[in-house]
Amino acid sequence: MADFEDGVILSPKSRPKITEEQAHNSPKLRDTKLTGTKRVPRFRNRSLSQSSNDSFSSGASYTGSSDGDDDHHPREAEQKNSQGFSDFCVRNILQAAFGRREIEIAEQEMPGIMALRKRAQQDKPLDGAKIVGCTHITAQTAVLIETLAALGANIRWAPCNIYSTQNEVAAALAEAGFSIFAWKGETEEDFWWCIEQCIEGEENQPWSPNLIIDDGGDTTHVMLKKYPDKFKNIKGIVEESVTGVHRLYQLSKCGKLTVPAMNINDSVTKTKFDNLYSCRESILDRCAGVWAG
Question: HEC states along the chain?
Answer without folding.
Answer: CCEEECCEEECCCCCCCCCHHHHHHCCCCCCEEEECCEEEECCCCCCCCHHHHHHHHHCCCCCCCCCCCCCCCCCCCCCCCCCCCCCCECCCHHHHHHHHHHHHHHHHHCHHHHHHHHHHCCCCCCCCCEEEEEECCCHHHHHHHHHHHHCCCEEEEEECCCCCCCHHHHHHHHHCCCEEECCCCCCHHHHHHHHHHHHHCCCCCCCCCCEEEECCCHHHHHHHHHCHHHHCCCCEEEECCHHHHHHHHHHHHHCCCCCCEEECCCCHHHHHHHHHHCHHHHHHHHHHHHHHC
